[in-house]
Amino acid sequence: MDKQILASFQGKSYLKEIDFTPAQLKALVEFGQEIKTAKQNQTLQPFLKGKNVILLFAKNSTRTRLAFELGAQEMGANTVFLDPASSQFGKKESVADTAHVLAGVADGIAYRGFGQADIEEMAADAYDTNGKHAPVWNALSDQWHPTQMIADFMTLQSEFGQLDNQITLAYVGDGRNNVARSLLVAGAMVGINVNIIAPQSLQPDQETVELAQKYAQAAGSQVLITDDLDQGAAEANVFYSDVFVSMGENNWQERLEALMPYQINETLLQKSKHYGHDLITMHCLPAYHDDQTQVAQELHAKYPGLVDTTGIEMSDAVFKGAQARHFQQAENRKPAIMAIMAATLGNLDLL
């Protein structure tokens, strides 16, 4: 890990991957691995000792909240969780005014919202009356999920030993959502091949594709956007999925009709030349892989011709298969987010 590169994050917000260089993203991945090892060895340094961190979440969360809250505490910070029900945010107070207030009482702000523009505005206004800036960390927006990427890259690095074009990640499903966009662009930045397999109506916008192609060309990797399952799966040694309908959306029938043919199942895995060896599956969770959730049960009852009880975006057999790395991803969320917080706000003299 390059300490000089890591120091370049100090005082900065972490809003989207393209605000940083490929080398900086890789440094965060390495730092996350070191924090994970230090935690296991009980040698973790109190990088955030004496700091106050606010978690402002307008959307529900499990992994992201736990990673920020517990991760900050384990590095010595005090944390406070706020949502719209327990604060004035979104009702009586604007994003800008909230940013100024939070920066006046805390040192860092994790913001999980809807529009990317709101998160950008939060970071632009997160100054106290003395001009001190509080870094803002994007805990998820409609366009990007940058903390997820560091956890995903940690998972890939642990599995394959490196991040390069020997890895071909095939994201299958809604290619326009925040996870797909982040994987496409950030994956190209760090040098892995990224395939987006989605129906044409749900493929990423041309601007995002061109941005990813530019990064891929510089890194020596490739990006592929296709609706052809055979073409998209042929070289893949990583299959990645997310729910078909994101938070804030409710067009289930339309999405199920379009995307059920793109379920990650054994038939799809068999289309890869890596089937049976050197192949993993990933999912950022939560996953509708069985009938053990209220949502999955409701969808099965409402759309029995489209949804059975053995999975939606990923089959239960694949989700529980030996190649599954979903819970490794989930565990990596905390050290990844700890690395982001420590790099931007922490005392790096402890390294």
If you had to describe this structure to a student in words, what would you say it looks like?
The structure is a single chain. The chain is of the alpha/beta class. The chain folds into two domains: 159 residues, Rossmann fold; 146 residues, Rossmann fold, CATH 3.40.50.1370. The mean pLDDT is 96. The protein contains 14 helices and nine strands. α3 packs across α14 and α6 crosses α7. α3 links the parallel β1 and β2. The strands form two sheets. A five-stranded parallel β-sheet has the order 7-6-5-8-9. It has a four-stranded parallel β-sheet with strand order 2-1-3-4, with helices on both faces. This is Ornithine carbamoyltransferase. Keywords: Cytoplasm, Transferase. It is found in: Cytoplasm. It comes from Convivina praedatoris.
Specify the helix fraction band.
Answer: 40-55%
Q: Can you count the beta strands?
A: 9
Instruction: Name the structural class.
Output: alpha/beta
Based on CA inertia axes, which overall geometry fits? globular
The value of Rg in angstroms is: 20 Å
How far from one another are the termini? Answer: 10 Å
The arrangement of helices and strands along the chain is HHEHEHEHEHEHEHEHEHHEHHH
CATH fold naming of the largest domain: Rossmann fold
What number of domains?
A: 2
- Widest sheet: strand ordering: 7-6-5-8-9
User: Which consecutive residue ranges, at least 5 long each, have pLDDT under 50?
Assistant: none
Q: Classify the beta-strand content into a percent band.
A: 5-15%
Mean pLDDT: 96
Catalytic activity: carbamoyl phosphate + L-ornithine = L-citrulline + phosphate + H(+)
Domain Aspartate/ornithine carbamoyltransferase carbamoyl-P binding: 13-157
Family: Belongs to the aspartate/ornithine carbamoyltransferase superfamily. OTCase family.
Main location: cytoplasm
